[in-house]
Specification:
Its cofactor is Mg(2+); Zn(2+). The chain has about 180 residues and is of the alpha+beta class. It contains four helices and eight strands, in the order ααββαββββββα. It has a domain of about 120 residues: Phosphoribosyl-AMP cyclohydrolase (Ubiquitin-like (UB roll), Roll).
């Protein structure tokens, strides 16, 4: 089931003189465990979400929201990660990007192992407040754990029914050296 609001262009039209006073559309609440103590505004109605001046994030059922990460100097998209309420809170409090690892089920600070820290320049949200965009100053040679500046180092090419991948550019660093101390 889609958790977005009804498309206004497809809503039934009524004559202006017979239109009843419309109640504001309501949006699903962020699960209480995701926002508890976070200081985020409640998700009340569409107008408040789309036009208001309070951050009222929508986390998914797992308490996460996508975070697109962009280099502030170049505009290059560096990575896509996920944030929970605590990651958002820590990022805003420390000025360094924090994310939630779905595979490790743990909060982590970008660069805690590699030293390739992401310093927050700005955090934006989309119109539905269910995705954030972080513009960052990327320290170190790259954001990608396999050695590239960006996690988006390959493009799809070839047969549209079974596209292949073309690597663009060379790795920015040797991940085996950076992560050599980690156990598999």
């Amino acid at each position: 089931m889609e958790d977005t609001v009804t498309d206004r262009d497809s809503a039934p039209q009524t004559a202006p003189d017979t239109a009843p006073e419309a109640a504001p559309e309501t949006l699903p609440e962020t699960p209480p465990e995701a926002a508890s103590g976070a200081g985020f505004a409640p998700r009340t109605d569409v107008q408040a979400i789309e036009r208001g001046d309070r951050f009222a994030p929508r986390f998914d059922a797992a308490g996460l929201m996508p975070a697109v990460v962009q280099d502030a100097a170049t505009g290059q998209v560096l990575m896509l990660a996920y944030m929970n309420a605590e990651a958002v809170r820590r990022t805003l409090a420390t000025g360094e990007a924090h994310y939630f690892s779905r595979s490790r089920n743990a909060l982590w600070r970008k660069g805690e192992r590699s030293g390739h820290v992401q310093k927050l320049v700005a955090m934006r949200t989309d119109c539905d407040q269910d995705t954030v965009l972080l513009t960052v100053e990327q320290t170190g040679p790259g954001a990608c754990h396999v050695g590239y500046r960006s996690c988006f180092y390959r493009r799809l090419a070839g047969d549209p029914q079974a596209p292949g991948l073309v690597t663009e550019g060379a790795p920015a660093y040797d991940p085996d050296r950076i992560y050599a101390k980690e156990a598999p």
